[in-house]
Structure formats: structure tokens, C-alpha cells
Design goal:
This protein has 279 residues and is an alpha/beta fold. The chain contains eight helices and eleven strands. The chain has an eight-stranded mixed sheet, with helices on both faces. A three-stranded mixed sheet has the order 4-3-5, with helices on one face. The chain is globular, with a radius of gyration of 18 Å.
Amino acid sequence: MIPTPDDPASTLWRLLIDGPARGSWNMAVDEALLEGAASPGFMPTLRLYAWEPACLSLGHAQPIVEVDKAQLAAFGWDVVRRPTGGRAILHTDELTYSITGSADSAIFQGGILTSYRHISLALLEFLERFYLQPAMKDNPEVSVSHQESVCFEVPSNYEITLSNKKIIGSAQARRKNAVLQHGAIPLFGDIARITQVLTYPDAAARKRAADRVRERATNLRLEIGQTVSWQQAASEFVKAFESIHNIKFITSSLTPDELTLARRIEAEKFADPSWTGRI
């Protein structure tokens, strides 16, 4: 019998708390966890991490021509291509999460949309812990034009909004019997900074894009009127998953085999300009 998300038999998870790292390493670790997630004995894993320096991540199939490379270099920001789909995200001043496990794990059962909903229940609880009233976006319009190359412009099914503004951007990948979902929670800063490193026909188009992002997206500081530290956000995120899904976390670290695999994946893929620029 496959356990339900609240079944006590499915409550033991591994927790990885990582410090800030370069974008290529962050994506390599997530992919290494994805590769191992279908192995017998793999414990469902929640990983919380940050980025240093700031990094623009592109969706798996997003064209590299949408990146303004000169502006990116001027800011000293990195660029990486995610193993998941979706649109561009500028990772800075945020809490990033990833969840990996077997497709048979309680939280991932039922397919992509069902698992998105299971995870989103905990994301709602996370925001409610800051006395906010989030909503779970259901069946929105998901058409994306070239002008909408930013992830936070367009909520997808079961993503989270506050006052109709997107607050958490998530994406999922499935390989064989393994699943990865990762997502970004902006804590503070200008949500429209990303438009400074994407391509637009002219300055007026860039400004219109920035205005759209500010109209459609938000961050925690804007909503609660004070800055939430990464550590506080991480603590509340863990508590939300414990509460909603009856999870018991075991704080751990990557195994030697996972570290070796992540280093190889980073060198061969995410740190390789030919991979990042392949589309």
C-alpha cells in the first residue's frame, strides 16, 4: 500500500542545510540527489540553500539569447541552466529549497500536479507562519511570450500567491522513478532586478518588463514590512513541512558518493559554458 502524505510510515526525511554556493554547484547537487533518489534506501530529502554570487538560472529549454551577457558580467552575476523547466530566476536574497525522492514517496505520488499540490500545502503553511494569507493558484493562464521570460511573472498550477502576486516559484523534474522539485522564495530586494540582465529591444521595453514584474510578483519584506533572515526563513520552512506532512527530519550532509557525483556533474554539465549555451 502506498502511504498517504500524512501516514506516519512516511515521516522520516533527511534535512540538508547548505551555505551559499555558486549556481553551478547548487544545480549539480540537486541533480546528484535526483540521480540517487530512485535507489533503494534513499531517504526523501529536503535541502535548503543560498547562492553566492547572485545567479541567473534559466529553465531547461530557455534560449540563452534571452540573457544580456554584457549586463550580467557588469553586475558580476553568474548564469546557470537548471535541470528543471520554467523561465528565468535571479537567485539572490532568497531561500531556495529542493525536495528529492522516489516517485513512490508519499509527497510525490499521484503525478506532477498532485505532488505540486501536496508540496504547496506546506508552502502555504510556511507563509501563514508570518501571519500572511496566501492562496494556491489553480488553473491560471500559462502562456508565456518573449516579453514574459521571467518566472515570477506567471504563476503555474498550485503555485503560491499573495494578493494575486506570485511569491514562490517552483519547478519539477522526473527521471525514471525519481523526482526533484526545487523553488525560490524571495526574502527582500527589488524583485525586478532580473530584468537588468535579460535582453529587450530597448530601454523602454526593459522598463515595461520591470514594471510588469513588480505588478505580478512580491517578496516577504514587501508583504510583512520587515526583513526575514535566511536562517529564520529556513527554520519556519522546516517547521511548516513538519506540521503539514508529519515529517521527522534527520539533519545530515551529502554522502561521499553524492559529493563525488555532484563534483562530476558540475564539471561536465553545469559549469560548462557549452551546456549553459546549448539552446
